[in-house]
Write a structure and sequence with these properties.
The structure holds 2 protein chains of 2 kinds. Chain A is of the alpha/beta class. Chain A has one domain: Aldolase class I (TIM Barrel, Alpha-Beta Barrel), CATH 3.20.20.70. Chain A is built from 10 helices and 14 strands. In chain A, helix 3 packs parallel to helix 5, helix 5 runs parallel beside helix 6 and helix 6 crosses helix 7. The radius of gyration of chain B is 17 Å and the shape is globular. Classes of the chains: A alpha/beta, B alpha/beta. Chain B: Pathway: Pyrimidine metabolism; UMP biosynthesis via de novo pathway; orotate from (S)-dihydroorotate (NAD(+) route): step 1/1. Chain B: GO terms for molecular function: 2 iron, 2 sulfur cluster binding; electron transfer activity; flavin adenine dinucleotide binding; metal ion binding; oxidoreductase activity. Chain B: This is Dihydroorotate dehydrogenase B (NAD(+)), electron transfer subunit.
Amino acid sequence: MNRLQVELPGLTLKNPIMPASGCFGFGKEYAQLYDLSKLGAIMVKATTLEPRFGNPTPRVAETPAGMLNAIGLQNPGLEKVVSEELPWLEQYDVPIIANVAGSETEDYVAVAERISKAPNVHALELNISCPNVKCGGITFGTDPEIAGELTRAVKAVSSVPVYVKLSPNVTDVTEIARAVEAGGADGLTLINTLVGMRFDPRTGRPVIANGTGGLSGPAVKPVALRMVYEVTRSVSIPVIGMGGVSDVDDVINFMSAGASAVAVGTANFVDHFACPNLIDALPGRLDELGIGNITELIGRSHRL
Amino acid sequence: MIRNERMKVTGQREIARNIYELVLEGELADEVREPGRFVHLRAGETVDPLLRRPISIADCGDGRITLIYRAEGHGTRLISEKERHGTADVLGPLGNGFPVEAAVPGTKALLVGGGIGVPPLYGLSKRLKEAGVEPVHVLGFQSEDVVFYEEEFSRLGETHIATVDGSHGTKGFVTDVMASLSHEFSVYYSCGPLPMLKAVADGMSGTEGYLSFEERMGCGIGACFACVCRTDSNDRGYVKVCSDGPVFKAGVVTI
């Protein structure tokens, strides 16, 4: 029995660690560094119907214990992702979670229908929380009614379970969580980045060309933990937690707060071996904590 | 192969005002091969600063790499505090460097550098010389106090210095020096700020050239799409500075 194994809708994870969407491309770059089959899953970069170039540069700026980014969903478009990127990933024994983005409901539906039929795509992650694009993205993720309707529309066409990625840039994240659960979501992923800014003191201009960017990294971790804790208390569908995860105790804490698995984002840029290192460190840490199976951790903070 | 290694610090010295030369020893040095590639260096040991710093490799050999960088922000200041006998967390070598083989042996190659863009040209010049090419250097700086490696470059070939304030060498820009040269060059190579690269490429149009670009980076390996530049040379319409570059043939990147 693999003590790190976690079962989620559509996903049998050999361990609960996966790179977060947007931080790992479509896997090719990190495949130069280690065997991607080691990962629990891979959340690949957001895919839109048409190719997107993204925002002007600078697209990233460092902040204390974090970073801002405004990439702007740059991707090669559905056709290329389905014909090139996903087939390339088939050489690895790892389930793919395809991140789906768009400007209109019709875009999400079209991408979801097609990409969910790819043999290695085991789940979708509906991106209704990207703060860096003018249309779509976060506009779908801040209104419970719209978020619920979009979830329903995508569920109707998807061949695999649908997870919805939630934005932290809302007054009450549980309201959105309940709305997408009612819309038929099979699971939730949270948090996306927090909208932030940084300025150049010499010029007064924002450092990021887009003006605002999404804050990620250790700086957002307390917010992410709080939201995972609140959301898992108010819905009954599973949650994949993320936001500043960088060491093994972060994994323990996110799962204790209620997450069934954990995604690693910005840490991949700091320690390029962050995911395999976390996977290797987990059994030893479980031993130290007297935990037999990792699933025992899920939501234990709620049971105290 | 890309390695992530704790390299030994074997040298750290200030070679001009706020300009430091850092020498690191480790297995990674054997992987470098071509000049103009870079490493991604962790500045500190904590989460602040969080991201790595991309620094070009100025020279390599005997199991060591030499990095020359300007200490101007929080991260690079921390790097400048790394002491001999300590270690540095290094990922690399990354990116694609200057093609030495583009220069024809027996001919002259023009190397144009500006400020902190000068360092990778040093390793390039050494490799060119080994290949039987005659390097001619035109190096631009703000002022005399930030000029570095003049002697080192002079040992390899003809070297011209320009300073913006005229405190050393020719007063003005690298292009002012270039205008005064009457040599025939089979190829040119350049690294420096964007306006300089543009001026150099314009001045050398008709000659084969290679430019090294700088852009804010996230991952350094091509996954995060932070450092993209527009191009007309492929059907994607973009190149990534970190993994497709940082060196591109002149004309590839739209500037």
